[in-house]
Amino acid sequence: MKKRILLFSLFAVLLSCNDATEIIQKGELNDTALFVSVDNMQNFLNETYDRVSTQTDILVASQLTDEVAIGNSLTTNDTQRFFIVTTNGQAAALWNTHYNAINYTNRLISGAALYKPTAAELPRYNSILAQARALRAFCHFQLMVYFSTDLSSDTALGVMLVDKVPSPSEDLPRATNGELFKFINDDLAFAEANLIAPTGAAAYKLVTKNFITAFKARMALYRKQYTQASAFADDLIANSGRVLSTCTVSIPNFPATSSVIPSLAGSTTINVDPGAANPVQRALFQMDQWVAPLSPVYRRMWVDAEQGEILFAIDRPNNRINFSSVYNTNGSYLTGAPLYDMSRNLFDLYATSLGGGAEDFRRWCFVDRSATISATPNTASRTNEVIVIDKYPGKTGSHTSNDLKVFRLSEIYFIKAECLVRANNLAGAANLIRQVRQARSYTGGTVPTPTYANAAAAFADILLERRKELSFEGHRYIDLKRLGADANVAGTDRSAQDAINSSATNPVNITVNDYRFTLPIPQSEININPLVQNPGYN
C-alpha cells in the first residue's frame, strides 16, 4: 500500500512544482468535499466492497497445493512448480489486493470523522462504519493466513497493522499476531454493536451477523482456540437460518454413479440441448443450465441463482470481474481454453461412491460434462486428458462471472467436527462428517457413519472432506499447513503426471513443514519499507 502512496507522491512532484502541490484546486474531490453526507459515505462503502477480493487467495491455494494441474492452454507456471521467491507475482498480488481494500476502509473511517451526523442519521452512520471495520478486520486476517508463520502463536510476526491512511514517508513494521488479533477483535466488537442487519435477497453479500460469527469461528479454529470456535459453530448451525444445500437429482437418464465416464457425444456445444439422441449428455445439460429448475439447490448455488448454504459471498456481477477465467480462459468448457485442469487425484476422490448407495454429486457439479477423462491416467498428457473445472461456471448472462463464496455452512460443520475431535468426541465428529456427505448424495441412499480409531484418523477424514468440499475456495493451503501433521498427512498429493505435464523441475510434492507454506513478504514492499522477511526467503 505504501508503495502506491509513494508512487502517487512522486507522480505529483514530476508534474508540478512543490508549491503547486499545496494548492487545493477548484472542484477537487478531497475528503472534506466527499464526506459531507451519510449517502456519500454509503457510496464510498459500496466501492469499498468492490475492492475486497479473495480471488488471488483462491488461485494461490490451488496452485501451491494439489487442486490443479497445468491445462492444455497454459505451458507452465512457477507457482505450480513450487518456485516461490520474494518477487513472486501471486504473493505480491495477494498483498496489494488486501492492503488496497484496507486503504479504502481507512479512508472511509477517517473521512467519516469529518461529518457530524444528526441523531436520526447516527444509527445508519455507525452501521456504515461497522461494515468498514469488519471488512478491514477480514482483510488483515486474510493477509495473516498467508504471511504469518504460525497463527496460533501471538508472539509470531504477522503483517503490517494499518489502522489509518499512512503518510508517504511513514514506515510500517510487521505487528505480532497478538497485536493484530486484538485489533481485529476490536473492529468486530464495534461491528457487532453497531451493525444494522441488511435485508433483501442479496443481504448475504454484505456484512451480517452470519459473516461476523463465521469469521470468528474460522479465526478461533486457526488460533487453536477450540472452545470458542465450537461455540461460534454451534451458533451458526442453530441460528444462521441456512441448512446444508441438497444435491438430489431427479432428471431422467442422469448417470447412476459418480464413476461413470459418459460419451462426449453432444457435449461440445455450449448452451445447446444435445437432444434425445444423447440422453446422458442431455441430462447433464439440463442439470448444468444456470436457471434450470431441474438443478438441485447445490448446483444453483454455484451458478449464483440461489443463496443455498452460503453465509457470505463477495458480489461479482456480470462484466465486473471475470473470476472464473482464472481457471478457464473463456468458459468452463473443453473449448474454453482451460488454463488449469482439476488434478487427477482430486477427480478420483469425486469419482468414488460415498457408500450405502449414495453417489457424490460433486463429480458432476465440479467437472464439466465436456471433460475428457483418460482410461490410462498414468500416461495421460495435457491434451488427451482435460478435466475441466466447473465449480465456477458463470451465471445468467456471463460464462466467466461468479460470486466468490467466502463462508459456507459446510465449513462450519467441519470446524465443529474438528473441535469435537480436540475434545475427544470422535463419534460426534463422525456424525457431522456423515451429514455433509449425505447432503452431497444425488442418488439417495444412506451414507454410512465413519468410525475413527483415534484422533489422527478423525483429522485425516476431516482433512479429506475439506479437500473435496472446499476445493477451489482457498482453503487447501492453510488446511495442510495447520492440520496436515495432526492427520498424519505428509504433504501435498499431486499425481506424478500432473507434474510431468507442467514441465516441473522442482519436486512433485512438498511436505507440510516446508517453508513455502508461508508466503514471502513481497520484495517490492521491502524495497521501500524494511520489513522482516519470512524464513527461507533470504
What would you say this structure looks like, in words?
This protein is mainly alpha-helical and 538 residues long. Helix 8 (209-222) runs antiparallel to helix 9 (226-239) and helix 9 packs antiparallel against helix 14. The two termini are 22 Å apart. It has 19 helices and 6 strands. The chain is globular and about 70 Å long. The strands form 3 sheets. Strands 1-5 form a two-stranded antiparallel ribbon. It has a two-stranded antiparallel ribbon with strand order 2-3. The chain has a two-stranded antiparallel sheet with strand order 4-6.
Strand content: under 5%
Low-confidence stretches: 1-22
Report mean pLDDT, rounded to a whole number. 92
Enumerate how many helices there are, as a single number: 19
Quick one: biggest sheet?
Answer: 2 strands, antiparallel
| Quaternary structure type | single chain
Structural class, from secondary structure content? Answer: mainly alpha
Keywords:
538 residues, mainly alpha, globular
Short synopsis of the structure:
With 538 residues, the chain is mainly α. It has 19 helices and six strands.
Topology, element by element:
Elements lengths: L1 H14 L15 H4 L3 H14 L3 H9 L4 E3 L18 H24 L9 H26 L9 E4 L13 E3 H18 L14 H14 L3 H14 L39 H10 L8 H6 L7 E5 L25 E3 L1 H7 L11 H4 L38 E5 H14 L3 H14 L15 H15 L6 H8 L12 H5 L22 H4 L12
Antiparallel strand pairs: 1-5, 2-3, 4-6
